[in-house]
Amino acid sequence: MIVSQSRWPAVLGASPAFPAGLPLVRPQIPDVPAVTRRLAEVLESGQLTNGRRVAELEERVADLLGVAHIVAVSSCTAGLMLVYQALGVRGSVFMPSFTFAASAHAVVWAGGTPVFGDVRRDDATLDVDATSDRLATASAVSATHIYGTPAHVQDIDTVAEQAGLPVVYDAAHALGSHVQGRPVGGFGTAEVFSLSPTKVTTACEGGLVVTHDPGLAKAVRLGRNYGNSGDYDCTFPGLNARMSELHAVVALAGLEVLAERIAGRAELVAAFRARLGNVVGVAFPVVADGDISTYKDLTMFLDPEVVGLTTGEVQAALTAEGVDSRRYFFPPIHRQRAYAHLRPSSPLPVTDVLAQQTLTVPLWSSMTTADVLRLADVVHGIVREAPRVREVLEQRR
Ligand SMILES: *Cc1c(COP(=O)(O)O)cnc(C)c1O
Q: Strand 207-211 and strand 190-194: pairing?
């Protein structure tokens, strides 16, 4: 068992652990010279969109996930909007508040209304058991594979099926996650991945809609192209949500290294946790035995009563070390100004607690083990010296 080499915190006068700074993520395109050549080919071909690279990406992802229909789009948000539009979602969509705002924005843009349910304490994914009464009036269900941790897809799909509702997974974090050997992408009515720069696989910007339903795939395909099937007699008001050929080239390169990256990230997270050891008041989202997370994020839940520091105070102490961090996801959607008018019909106690406790620290695929171990030492030192850290931070106010 490796024991943490607790560091004296920078906020108490030590020199910063990462003087050059430790960013939250560092997107890396594999084999840039090869990608650049393929980008040049696209530029020289004159076929910048609706071409063979996007088609190739869709085929590759279909093989990878074992799902028949993949529609590449310009972003996950646009993909979600098109899915909700295609499903004809008009009323409420039962979904977590503890997720990124775009999960809810897409519902609103498509003409629906989010109805927020609570999340599970252990892994922060949608808790259908605790809130299934709120499903009664919904017209669809949505859940997020948050941080890459798969949602409880069996429970969610079963409950939704009994209620006769479609399920849309916000799979933005989860390209490469698995549930008991089955790739995320094949669950529910549709799953939508993001390929934005903070995700494990990036197209610079982009998204992927994945579904077993040929009719839904057709509608999304049409929808990403204004709803124009080619005769300019649009059948519905679509978007321009196409992925360009250039973006598809970048995404294809990322797919080549996806499995390797996910294995590497799991090792880095394991190294961080082993080094940190069991610190009371610090918990991690639970990934079920047999499931695989992309670990899109290295997120901790810090109980302020036990740790003796608020999440904001730990964040301030990390900033002094040169360490970037984010409170993913605070405030939860139901407490954001854009959604203030949608008061939840009943409280969301777990969401409110986790939103106070959550702190995401740096992790990227090519991060070194040495940096991860040092980061663990930094966190350990801040927590160990909590009373002094709080005192110093209070004096600064
Ligand atoms: C990043 C993210 C999105 C949005 O993805 P885009 O591709 O940027 O539109 C949606 N949901 C979640 C949970 C995300 O983290």
A: antiparallel
Q: Which of 285, 251, 324 is nearest to 124 (CA)?
A: 285
Q: pLDDT at residue 99 above 90?
A: yes
- Determine the pLDDT at residue 132: 67
Tell me, in angstroms, the distance from the centre of ligand 1 to residue 172's CA: 5
Give residue 149 CA to ligand 1 midpoint distance, Å.
15
Structure tokens at 101: 């705002």
Q: For residue 387, report the distance from its CA to the centre of ligand 1, in Å.
A: 37
The residues facing 207 across adjacent strands are 73, 194
Binding pocket residue ranges, ligand 1, CB within 6 Å: 75-77, 99-100, 102-103, 144, 170, 172-173, 194, 196, 207
- Which atom of ligand 1 sits closest to the CA of residue 206? 7
Q: By C-alpha distance, which of 203, 198, 173, 174 is closest to 186? A: 174
Cα→Cα distances 115→1, 32, 89, 108, 333, Å = 45, 43, 13, 11, 11
Pick from 373, 287, 307, 296: nearest CA to 329: 296
Cα dihedral 122/128/131/132 (nearest 10): -160
| pLDDT per position as a tens digit, 43-74 | 999 999 999 999 999 999 999 999 999 999 99
- Pairwise pLDDT comparison (316 vs 136), residue with the higher score: 316
Which atom of ligand 1 has the smallest separation from the CA of 196?
7
Specify the ligand 1 atom closest to the Cα of 75: 7
What pLDDT sits at residue 90? 86
* Beta-carbon-side half-sphere exposure of residue 352 (alpha carbons within 13 Å): 7
CA–centroid distance, residue 142 to ligand 1 (Å): 14
For the chain, how many residues are written? 397
What distance in Å separates the CA atoms of residue 365 and residue 199, rounded to the nearest whole number?
10
What pLDDT, on the 0 to 100 scale, is given for residue 3?
54
Q: Which two tokens stand for residue 30?
A: 């594999």
- Is residue 345 pLDDT above 80, yes or no? no
254: enclosing H helix or E strand = helix 245-256
Residues in contact with 52: Cβ distance below 8 Å, sequence separation at least 6, in sequence order = 245
**Which DSSP letter does residue 119 get?**
B
Q: What is the CA radius of gyration of the chain?
A: 22
